[in-house]
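FORM 7B: Structural annotation worksheet

SECTION A. Query
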Amino acid sequence: MAAGAHAAARIAKLPASGGWKCAVAYLPMHLRNPCRPLYPDRGPLAGAEAERRNLSKIVNGASLQPRSGSAPKNIVLLLHGFGSSGTDMISLAPQWQEALPDTLFLAPHAPQRCSMMGAGYQWWGLSGFAPSALAAGAASAAPAIDAFIDRKLAQYGLSESDLALVGFSQGTMMALQVGLRRPRPVAAIVGYSGMLAGAADLAHHLPSKPPVLLVHGTADPVVPIAALHMSESQLKRLGVEVETHISYGVAHSVDPVGLRIGRDFVAGAFARKSG
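SECTION B. Predicted structure
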């Protein structure tokens, strides 16, 4: 079995509690938030304390250093899905390293623990699946990711053009939420089995238009394939360059072809930046 197939097989076999195969499909549509934040809300914070808390919200999770052994020239930020973790998401990185030898892969844990999903995390609690609820949830989680990005870019002396955001499911919502609103465009956004959670504000203010790739399975019972078509349409109306790949017969997971296409999309974006 090829390396990419090994990764896809591992992803497909991960349990719903903590793996890429999320169990959201089996949750009641209007369940109360079952998860507790790692950092309980103590009310509004200001100044340096607010900045300190923002930076501390995201747990470092897992990482993979550049295969070349050199200082990172690029960063791929891997954002996991609901009930998953950076430890799961980093399993994608070894399959991409050969094409991205100078890239640092970072797969942080989201800031909230999800008690009903075992050892998993969430970017925000799923109190409902209405578009307004998804948009509000993604917006509430974005500042922590933005702060994490700012810290890592400064740490390695890199810029947004050296960064690609790759998400799965809820992580795709976050990759699009953050990547389209950064003051300067990131190199690329790749979204697996997810969707654009909120676009109303983008019609009036779209700071950057990075290239976007959306990959989705036709047999996805969690986030239906219609979400890809809706997201593609919204992004194109905004003038965002978007490509899509439909994985026929694939459920809420990523197959070897989807892994390869995502890798090549990111590698091409970094090559254009440095060319």
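SECTION C. Observations
Residues 3 and 95 are 6 Å apart (CA to CA). The domain at 3-11+53-274 is CATH 3.40.50.1820 (Rossmann fold).

SECTION D. Sign-off
Analyst initials: ____
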